[in-house]
Specification:
This protein is mainly α. It has 10 helices and 3 strands, in the order αααααβββααααα. The chain is 46% helix and 6% strand. A hairpin with a 6-residue loop joins strand 1 and strand 2. It binds a DNA duplex through helix 7. One of its GO terms (biological process) is DNA recombination.
Length: 269
DNA sequence: AGCTGAAGAAAGGTTTTGCG
DNA sequence: CGCAAAACCTTTCTTCAGCT
């Protein structure tokens, strides 16, 4: 700025008001640009999204038909698979999934296109809840509706229709004791899945600073610092990436999807 | 930048189930 | 049937995300 006015003077644009006029305009432009200066980069945040090999293996481990599935019964397998997919695809918080109702997915017709679309209601399920730790939505604004793919709808319907254990509670996720699944049990499920990963996948996590992950059935004897188990929150971070990709892929569903997205609740990475 | 509620870790317990 | 393992849960305490 200083430089520019000096140059103008030097070039002999010495009509004072001419220089002043230019200076005023430049000042204004400078002010404008200062507003849109790029934000300072934050100190590099550790990567929380999971490596691709780990995500691929988790699909295989949770797949109810897979040889690698460590869970015993078909009921628990399909329940855990749906739980995993909800965390990975929708990026739900741990507790949010446990609040879902067995009728959380709703459909409606779009009067303009005449097509059916479906979404899932993330909200607080009213009624008695016997759990020691009550899951809760973090804020009122956490109540939202998320668009769901036909694949997810099929998975949901299959589980609810064929495998969900009947219970007097309306929750989607029910334990073998016929009560809503406890928060800790979700961790237990992911612990089992984590120990079922191949050595290669475990190595990929250790490269990222995780502690050594024990083999199935064994406790962890390793004293190294770091995370030992994949958590729903890790999937939430991974989900943000996947979600963007799916929206781009979904083409003409895009507007509908965005309409259902609560922009105030965009996932931050 | 501070705060609040959710997530996570750890330890340890009970109930249920698959399978020999 | 019997038993070991899986499934599930409580309790306490610490850490962290993300809202205001």
């Amino acid at each position: 700025m200083r430089f520019v006015t000096d140059v103008l003077r030097h070039l002999g644009v010495d009509e004072a008001d001419e220089v002043q006029r230019l200076e005023a305009r430049l000042t204004r432009i400078e002010a404008l640009y200062s507003q849109i200066a790029p934000k300072k980069k934050k100190a590099a945040a550790p990567i929380r999204a999971l490596p691709a090999i780990v995500v691929e293996e988790l699909y295989e481990i949770f797949d109810p038909l897979s040889q690698r599935n460590p869970f015993k019964t078909v009921q628990i397998r399909s329940r855990n698979y749906l739980l995993f997919i909800l965390y990975l695809h929708l990026g739900l918080r741990r507790g949010e999934a446990l609040l879902l109702s067995a009728s959380a997915i709703r459909s409606d017709y779009d009067l303009i296109t005449g097509r059916e679309y479906r979404w899932i209601n993330v909200t607080t399920l009213e009624g008695e809840d016997p759990r020691y730790l009550q899951p809760a939505l973090k804020t009122e604004q956490s109540q939202r509706q998320l668009p769901v793919t036909p694949e997810l709808v099929a998975l949901f319907d299959n589980y609810v229709g064929n495998y969900r254990i009947h219970s007097k509670y309306g929750h989607l996720f029910i334990s073998q004791k016929k009560t809503p699944l406890a928060l800790q049990t979700v961790n237990d499920i992911f612990n089992v899945a984590t120990t079922s990963l191949s050595p290669a996948a475990k190595a990929a996590l250790e490269v990222r600073g995780w502690a050594k992950i024990p083999a199935r059935g064994k406790g962890s004897q390793d004293e190294r610092e770091g995370k030992r188990w994949i958590s729903p929150h890790d999937l939430r971070h991974t989900a943000a990436v996947l979600r963007l990709k799916r929206f781009v892929d979904s083409g003409d569903e895009m507007e509908k999807a965005i309409g259902k997205l609560d922009t105030r609740n965009n996932l931050s990475l």
